[in-house]
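Just curious. Invent one:
>
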Amino acid sequence: MVISVVAGCLSLAVAGCGEQRLAESELVTASRWLSVDPSRAMVVLPPGGPPVIGVTQRGYENAIAQTISLATRGRAPGENKIEVAFFTAADLPDSAGVEGNLLRLPGIDDFAVAQDMEERLPGVAMAPSAVFVQNKYGPFGYAFGRGPGGEACIYAWQRIADGDSIFRPRSGAVSVRIRICDPKASEAALLRLAYEYSLNASLRRSGWNPAGDAPAPAPELGQAGAPIYPLLQAPEAAAPPRAARRRPARAPHAETDRSRDLQPVPDRPLEGYPTVPPPPKP
């Protein structure tokens, strides 16, 4: 009887100790966004761009989205960041918002872009560019403006998708949004980030290739009789001639009255000096 009671107490104690152990899988967070290492960012900026300070990621049934936070300077409201999403070849919802666990493909029409800029750059007057621009992934759009402190701000958007048709399945899509303000940068410097960014990941799905195949090299490459010369840099503009430094004009000297220095010519020979005869007449 005593042995059974002791065994029961021991079993309860062991059970109590087991309930106190907590597994990490029991933690449930309120947000579906999880922090990942910056090296797993799906978009990489060229050298000289703002550094990455954090990356959050969320998975959907049809996409994987990331928000890449960048170092922010200036007084413009909001933070510098890149929003990127990789969409699968599944059908995409066209309605506004997220249906269940599906992510809507961001629009690239004027109204959708204006809404995005108002949300990410509140109070900053942004002017969309009417110039056609294209990087290595295809055409993209951008808008430029000035923040309250005079900082340069750019908002660039791009949808990367190969030409889908009814004769083949969808090859997926990539959506990229870049929002950067910098008080020490120019419009050209910020635009360079949109030109030279690179995709740093892909989806391991059959047929997923939104950027398409790399273009074939030029047919004359490696062929005889087709010399290729290096690109000559434009000659530097000659320095403008240095303007000669003009000396300050001197104040004109007042002419002295020489009449006071001239003495009257004597009308008779001076005493003690020989008389000089006049020159002979011709």
In short: The helical segments are 2-20, 110-120, 187-196. Residues 155 and 179 are 5 Å apart (CA to CA). The longest helix spans residues 2-20. The chain has a mean pLDDT of 80.
